[in-house]
Amino acid sequence: MSTIKEVAERAGVSIGTASNVIGGSAPVSKARAARVWAAIKELDYHPNEVARSLKAKQTKMLGMVLPDITNPFFSDLIRGAENAALERGYLLLTANSDEQVEREKRFVAALRSRRVDGILLAATASKNETHLRSAVAADVPIVCLDRMAPGLAVDAVLADNVRGTQECVRHLIRLGHKKIAIITGALELRIAGERLAGYRAALEEADIRYSDELVMKGDFREEAGYRLGKELLLNRERPSAIFACNGVMMLGLLVAIDELGVRCPQDIALATFDDLMFAHSFHPHLTAVAQPANAMGYQGANLLIDRVEGKLTGEPLTVRLACELKIRESTRGYAPAAVANGSPARSSKASRTSLPATT
Amino acid sequence: MSTIKEVAERAGVSIGTASNVIGGSAPVSKARAARVWAAIKELDYHPNEVARSLKAKQTKMLGMVLPDITNPFFSDLIRGAENAALERGYLLLTANSDEQVEREKRFVAALRSRRVDGILLAATASKNETHLRSAVAADVPIVCLDRMAPGLAVDAVLADNVRGTQECVRHLIRLGHKKIAIITGALELRIAGERLAGYRAALEEADIRYSDELVMKGDFREEAGYRLGKELLLNRERPSAIFACNGVMMLGLLVAIDELGVRCPQDIALATFDDLMFAHSFHPHLTAVAQPANAMGYQGANLLIDRVEGKLTGEPLTVRLACELKIRESTRGYAPAAVANGSPARSSKASRTSLPATT
DNA sequence: TCGCGTAAATGGAACGCTTCATTTATACTG
DNA sequence: CAGTATAAATGAAGCGTTCCATTTACGCGA
Question: Up-side HSE of residue B288: CA atoms within 13 Å toward CB?
Fold first, then answer.
């Protein structure tokens, strides 16, 4: 890798001059500038950004740590953030915490050592967020995405979880469901609490009694969806609808449903948070609360960069992005009547047309 | 952010000594070392990796550029690579090329400027890979993942595409299918060619005539699966089975099938490259050629780091990883007889039990 | 032809760290 | 106690940039 010194020598100018033509930081005569550019081409010179960063005290890199890139929601988040970063000349250093605080801690430290200009964070649940406090104390700009780190005074771009869930459950209620189960996320996570709150709110406004038995405490992981789903389905008091608090748990739930031979939507209605891409190409098409993942990443990164560049100052901001309810097959064709009087008949063939066409 | 100088001052030692206790590069008396550690804790000191990198001429960062992180195959790749990187003390700088050479070029340049120690690359199709050649010429270690960049003398970790496809098509043939269509990837990509070759090989060994009409040239994107799938299904000479050359196109194909009311596996058999996570939790469960994505990333990163650290020298290596054929519902229940005599009956209800139980 | 003002080019300090040649402190031996 | 071997601590150079205070070159009017 050639250095600016070599470029300067080859062009027959001083290092300072070379730097000036590259950075456009001071006027250079046409002739010399041309010689410098030629040298750059000939040597295939790539400015050493490491040295630049040292001098400039900024790396033009953003750190991003989130639970699991393998979850399509988060990969969309990344894409959004990457686009914003790219537009503004930053690169993304990503890392997966796997919901382990220790890993998160490790990555945050590594990112700080690398002197990233700021950090995008979908925090993991923990009682010990000292690593985050210390980062904030050290003035490392942080923007929380999707999940707020509790008690941290930082910017955040979040989905309107309460509203999103509430609307979806309200939709189920409107269809006649009264026994609606929910598989929650890890309740240490505020986001999980919010979704549960949306569920409660919907029940409340419809005067439906909230029952602990219908609330299965999950953890946002596929296995939980499978296990808790099975539990719900095997219960003699089977609910007529199940709401999963994220897409990955719904995946597990679908496996459970399949194994038990339960049919959707005839035997049970399903709805879920997250509109993963397969929601539209598989059976049953899932009614889903679509989060604007890409937009969240995009806005989050822009917000962060605004902070980094001092274009935004003052109190931390919280942006709430609305979700969109996508009504699909998995909440159709269920006969409310069958629900009302006891255990649902497996073969209930409620005519589709009798239901409001709510697409 | 505090510096080592501040740490040294607070501990009452020289900078060199502080550096020695941090790096363990030279013996330091117990008492002083303790004072240094204390100062580090008190100041919440995070060594400036930028300065370190400048001095050491290595950043402990790996670049990774691939087409689209949103494709679950690639996010698995990343996870694998990240695990290897983490184990060996590296961080991953990821970027999505979106199959655009220009973007790829831009990222590769950015990564080189950042002086990453090496690059993991799933190359995009192009006739102009000068950016890669110049990187190789500059001794930037590169390992290709999934897709080989044509004519580049670099290491690669690839799937055994020919074999994987061949086995799957062979499976279809064994079920009695004779009219098997394939939706290919962008044929400029060697990987797409390999999968097509596997298809041809399977036909050949079964003495089935290769027909251009059954080969739909796609591009690995969902839209292609949808469009070409529809074309195939609307053709009066509808094939009895379709093989999609990647999971994302299969997604599109499923939409097409759904729209046209074609049932799988009764009306048509489906099989696909890539075993995306939804293959097991949705209907129809898809017969798939599972690529060891995670292992690919893991091995690729390790290979790259071996090169970076000089633990591996000499000629470029190519590692081929075997795929695994997962036989599932989407290739069951189809009556070979119905295929043999003309257009398949939509309602053919071949009994499942009459077919070999090939799980 | 000499100064002078402006524009262009240069050189060196500094960024935070590691490394290594020196210097300083400590311990041991005769 | 002097002398020496050994261990520990220090200071300065250098990594590749940028930035800025100087220096150099140039054109023009008197």
Answer: 21
Closest to B164 measured CA to CA, from B226, B246, B67, B224: B246
Structure tokens at A5: 């010194």
Return the SS3 of B183.
strand
Distance CA B176, CA A87 (A): 53
Q: Which residues of B touch A276 (CB under 8 A)?
A: 278
Beta-bridged to residue B145, according to DSSP, are B157
Question: Does A358 score more than 80 pLDDT?
Answer: no
Give me the residues paired with residue A143 across strands.
Answer: A120, A155
Flag whether pLDDT at B337 surpasses 50. Answer: no
- Chain C: nucleotides below 7 Å from protein CB are 7-12, 14-21
Q: What is the DSSP letter of A266?
A: T
pLDDT in tens, A96-119: 999 999 999 999 999 999 999 999
* Centroid of chain to Cα A166: 19
**CA-to-CA dists, residue B59 to A50, A85, A114, B54, B90, angstroms:** 8, 21, 9, 8, 8
* Residues whose CB is less than 8 angstroms from the CB of residue A55 and which lie 6 or more positions away in sequence, other chains included: none
pLDDT at A147: 94
For residue B40, give the amino acid letter.
I
Distance from CA of B26 to the nearest CA of A (A): 22
Contact indicator for A69, A96 with CB cutoff of 8 Å: yes
Nearest chain A CA: its distance from B215 CA (Å): 23
**Which of B248, B212, B246, B249 is closest to B228 using CA atoms?**
B249
Q: Closest Cα of chain A to B113: distance in Å?
A: 5
DSSP run (H or E) holding B205: helix B190-205
Note the pLDDT tens digit of each residue in B289-313.
999 999 999 999 999 999 999 999 9
Indicate the pairing of strand A180-183 with strand A215-216.
Answer: parallel
Asked if A114 and B50 come within 8 Å (Cβ–Cβ), the reply is yes
pLDDT of residue A354: 31
**First-residue to last-residue Cα distance in chain B:** 59
Nearest nt (C1') from B54 Cα: D15
Query: Which residues in chain B touch residue A281, judged by CB atoms under 8 angstroms apart?
Result: 251-252, 254-255, 258
Q: Which residues touch strand C (CB under 7 A)?
A: A 13-17, 20, 26-29, 31-32, 51, 54-55, 57; B 3-5, 15-16, 19-20, 22-23, 25-26, 45, 47-48, 51-52, 54-56
Strands (E), A51-90: 61-66
Amino acid present at A307: R
Q: Do the beta carbons of residue A334 and residue A348 sit within 8 Å?
A: yes
For residue A47, how many C-alpha atoms fall within 13 Å in the half-sphere facing its CB?
13
What are the C-alpha distances in Å from A18 to residues A31, A47, B144?
12, 11, 35
Q: Cα(B91)–Cα(B354) distance, rounded to whole angstroms?
A: 53
- Cβ pair B257, B232 in contact under 8 A: no
How far apart (Å, rounded) are the C-alpha atoms in residues A15 and A3? 10
Question: Tokens in use for B280?
Answer: 């097991």
Which residues are CB-contacts of A316 (< 8 A; sequence separation ≥ 6)? Answer: A153, A154, A155, A156
